[in-house]
Amino acid sequence: MTAQGTIAPAPQILKLALLAVGGQGGGVLTGWIEAMARANGYVAQATSVAGVAQRTGATLYYLEMCPAGPRLPVFSLMPAAGDVDVMIAAEMMEAGRSIIRGFVTPDRTTLIASTHRALSVSEKMVPGDGIADSDEVMAAAEVAARRFIAADFEAVAAGAGSVISATLFGALAASGTLPFPREAYEAAIRSGGKGVEASLRAFAAGYQAALEGTVDGSASPPKPVSRAPRVPGRLAADWAALCARVERLPAEVTAMARSGLAKVVDFQDVAYGRTYLDRIEALLALDHTPFDFTREAAKYVANAMAYDDVIRVADLKTRSARYDRIRIEMGVAPGTVLHLTEFMHPRAEEIAGLLPARLGARVQASPVWMARLDRWFNRGRRLRSDSLTAFAMLYALGSLRRLRRGTLRHAQEVAHLDRWLDAARATLAQDRALAIEVIRTRRLIKGYSDTHARGQSKFDRVMEGIDLLKGRDDAADWARRLREAALQDEAGQALNGAMATVRTFV
Amino acid sequence: MAERSFKAEVADLRKGAGETFTGEGILAITKALLENGVGYVGGYQGAPISHLMDVLADAQDLLAELGVRFEANANEAAAAAMLAASVHYPIRGAVTFKGPVGVNVASDALANLSSSGVTGGALVILGEDYGEGSSIMQERSHAFAMKSQFWLLDPRPNLPSIVKAVGDGFALSEASNSPVMMMMRIRSCHVTGQFACRDNRKPTLSVRDALSNPRSDFARVVLPPMSYVHEQDKIKNRWPAAEKFILDNQLNEMFGTGGRIGIVCQGGMYNGVIRSLQRLGLADIYGETMVPIYCLNVTYPLISSEFLKFCEGKSDVLVVEEGQPDFIETALAAMLYRTGSTVKLHGKGAFPMAGEYTGTVMLDGVTAFLRAAAPDMLPALVRAPNQDRPAIPDLTKTVPIRPPGFCTGCPERPIFAAMKLVEKDLGKHQIAADIGCHLFGALPPFEIGGATMGFGLGPAANGAFDGGGERRPIAILGDGGFWHNGLSSSITNMVFNKSDGVVMVVDNYYSAATGGQDVMSSRADNPTKATQHSIADAVRGVGVKWVRQIDHTYDVGKMRAVLTEALTTNEPGPKVIIASSECMLNKQRREKPQRTAAIKAGRRIEAPRFGVDEAICTGDHACIRLSGCPSLSLKRLDDPLRDDPVAAIDQTCVGCGNCGEVADAAILCPSFYRADVVHNPGRFEAWWAARRTGVIGWLQARRAARRIELQA
């Protein structure tokens, strides 16, 4: 060979990369592929990056193989951008990461991705909705990959009683990208020796899922549906009357109002449902097509009316549907017994909120009484809600529902609701879009105790910002930005920043 | 017991001549040590060479048969110091640790060893933790070899080459009376492959026999005037002897012939260089190359004559040297300059000075070199690339980062949750972190700890604040770090200097981050090591008066109370809290099979798991900001009234209790519940549970009949 000569054609090296989250069994999958290649007349090499990356972090495995020849080929130890034949991503954002790193290219890469999400801490800790958009990754994968095979291989694996490494191995077999028959894959699983039957089942299921290329909806949020409540006979007429009122609302509003109505009736009673519809109809009278103001109000008024008090928590904790759900989720088999422990931590505020409004207000105004209540009640309580005493206690708390309208907490909630709706009404005449944002600001109020207080204060500050913005053309847009900022972090730093910006121009 | 068992692989270590070994690089090295008659082995675990320690630990029967002593050293300094056995005795010894941090720790012993010189072959197997997957600062161990005059091997990353390098290393060490360090990069430690075995060899002199015939020679002691003699000996005798051995045995390799250009690369870079040449059509998959390569399997010392001969007749030579600074390139450039050569040396420039030489960097670097030195060799496509590729959407803003974090059910999580809560009560504190899993506490959602100064040095890193102030400094120290260096460098430093600071010792029963090796305070019985030495006794023993032992870290309320006490007490002197609970990864590995067997055998077992009532969860995620547990995630609801996803716990939950404890201690919300499924309940228990369920069901039906209820 000379410098001017050429290199004789030789067999090509097949290159596979695997991007997984620590704990997904990437090592097992790599081992199977490698063993299969060696058993079928190939030389193969695998590398991985072990170490702390395997503690829940993103982890990369890499394999090269080619037909065995007279000499050993020189394999590379890491994948290179633009030089990968098969990219397996064991999670949707890892598929995105493999695209970012250039391992998926239109000229040659088959991308096999599981569409499920294992959320990263940065997505989960956001007080609002910080979940990354899988659709963007799907769209990019369609462009970047020569072939794109996607399915929820995690769910398929769970269905087969195994783990994702086996379903992805099945998908790899189905892709036909490696020159080995299906039997070779199954033989590799068998020679692995551990959990062979479950792995083979999952392998077959993964194989099938990949052939169907089913990209189900699990990557995108579930479609909202209105759920119908269960109505006992004696209340059927009352309920029908309420439903009839909902049906008379404009079509744009009915779906939301139906959900809202069910929620508030579930929270309290039929009369409460009437109050809800009274409020919605009163707002509707000020609205016009496309009735988005009323629709948003139907949503947030229901949420505001179904506030999270002790009674509601006790009520929800003691329902039979809950016990059924837990039995299914925990896989409670016949012959086993379920123990349930609830973690409650009441404070003086919650106790005072339960008192009749005037008494409660006096107690809340008295530091001595609040300290006393704290001494009596403020500690963590573990309630064994499968035991009769704890259940009876929660059940009794839940039955205070009938007295709820007289409690201090109810009075406070109604006052807050009225102030908020007054503000929305006052804005509606001048700036409909801004009024809708006023309604939506209610989203910030959520949680219990300190979290609730923090939500209240963020709500107040956004409302304050909205006041400053009134009269501007872009007021609604800025109100939305304020709300989104408030949902970005716990301490409200993003909101502080947004408020500071607003102050520079108003 | 280590996280991964190598019992099955250890059988491979018994293979003899005529058999083929298939497996990981780390295992191949172990086999090579035995084939080369090693007399003692040791080291300190750390990625990427943890498995080497695990293999050795699992192979103790075999080692004993061969008369090989295995020592799980207290730290890298102890490991390097152990090589002293090769100073006077003709015994081959090998130790392993990670670099460059391990070499930092070991450098005192290595410098002394290098000065004294060795009789038996002394080999350091170094796992260079650099590039993707690394958990430490990005530096090179190369400089240590240069300063102490020991030799550095960097073999090509395939099993036959690695195995050969072990034998070469011992022989080189003996030929030049100098220790040798064999550098393995992260991927080459875990690379798989095959090699032809040779028989294992017993050491010619065992350490036991050496003890029976002790030797000493004051000429080997590092004291003046011998130390001056040692320096002269290194330069006048050992170095030339090493050069001669390297040349005579052709430890460095040449590939390809002729041509005006050439590439000099570290052995570890060879495969990457060949791959980029393959992609440019200048090499085939077997490494036949049109660009000659001078492959440095020995990266220190560099052999001037060999390099200059390679350069003869060439106009341009590329140096492929990963990391910074460019020690090799600078040295090669000096060689060329001194001989008045006109060869143009390329290297950093075509390649970036800093960072790993990934496939892309390698291809770009080699292409840049060829473009400058021999553009005619480049394929047409590279010279004038087609630009009609579809634009791939940019996902960098969409895809979240995924750094490593605490495992599901980790006992360290509640410690950091408690610390976060204490900071909410008492304000932000000066917190020094240390090395270990607990360093994940520095990441979101906890963000506890500002800097880390090295293994076992957390409390020492707060030394400047020992004088005290308005708030006390806090330092974190793991059990691994405590025994590695922490007790002496950190705790005694605090006691002696009358520190007012607080130390949180995170005790998870193992050297957990490196794979669950036993340490002094491990609770398990270990047949060959002494365990169960109390950390509390140790700190009391060096004079700490205020010591609190917490035996269940998941009790967040207690953790918070004790930490608050430590930060507010009037007691003078250091305050040491020892927070102990077993590493969940290891605990599950130990208990899960036992639990499954017990359930099968019909014994009564309670299996705990946590859940979230989605109707009660409001989607603020405050619980996640005090957890970050992989099993505590989010779920989008199909309820049109709800905007934000709610918390949800998946099936991987191990029921550690952190969720409930945090919800209680931080007064978050009542959404969490713990469900204990009792397998094989007693007869009375089952009967009573059925009665209770009956009564509860009757009450539920009674209420449901009187109202309209959503179906959850």
Q: Your description of this structure?
A:
The complex is a heterodimer of chains A (506) and B (712). In chain A, 55% of the residues lie in helices and 10% in strands. Chain A has 506 residues and is an alpha/beta fold. The longest helix of chain A has 21 residues, at 408-428. Mean pLDDT of chain A is 92; it is low at 1-5 and 216-220. By secondary structure, chain B is an alpha/beta fold. In chain B, α2 (25-35) packs across α3, α9 (159-176) packs across α12 and α18 packs parallel to α23 (658-665). Chain B is globular and about 100 Å long. The two termini of chain B are 46 Å apart. Chains A and B meet through β2, β3, α2, α3 and α4 of A and α10, α13, α16, β21 and β22 of B.
Write the layout of secondary structure elements.
The complex is a heterodimer of chains A (506) and B (712).
Chain A: E1 14-21, H1 26-39, E2 42-48, E3 58-67, E4 86-89, H2 92-100, E5 110-114, H3 121-124, H4 134-144, E6 147-151, H5 153-159, H6 164-175, H7 182-192, H8 196-212, H9 236-247, H10 251-267, H11 270-284, H12 292-305, H13 310-317, H14 320-329, E7 337-344, H15 348-354, H16 357-365, H17 367-377, E8 381-384, H18 388-399, H19 408-428, H20 432-440, H21 449-469, H22 475-486, H23 493-505
Parallel strand pairs in A: 1-4, 4-5, 5-6
Antiparallel strand pairs in A: 1-3, 2-3, 7-8
Chain B: H1 7-10, E1 20-24, H2 25-35, E2 40-43, H3 50-58, H4 60-66, E3 69-72, H5 76-82, H6 85-88, E4 93-99, H7 101-116, E5 122-128, H8 142-148, E6 151-153, H9 159-176, E7 180-185, H10 186-190, E8 192-196, H11 207-212, H12 226-248, E9 253-255, E10 261-266, H13 270-279, E11 293-296, E12 298-300, H14 304-311, E13 316-320, H15 327-338, E14 344-346, H16 359-373, H17 380-383, H18 413-426, E15 431-433, E16 451-452, E17 474-478, H19 479-496, E18 502-507, H20 535-541, E19 546-550, H21 556-568, E20 575-580, H22 584-600, E21 605-612, E22 632-635, E23 646-649, H23 658-665, E24 672-679, H24 683-704
Parallel strand pairs in B: 2-3, 2-4, 4-5, 5-7, 6-7, 10-11, 10-13, 13-14, 15-16, 15-17, 17-18, 18-20, 19-20
Antiparallel strand pairs in B: 1-8, 6-12, 9-11, 21-24, 22-23
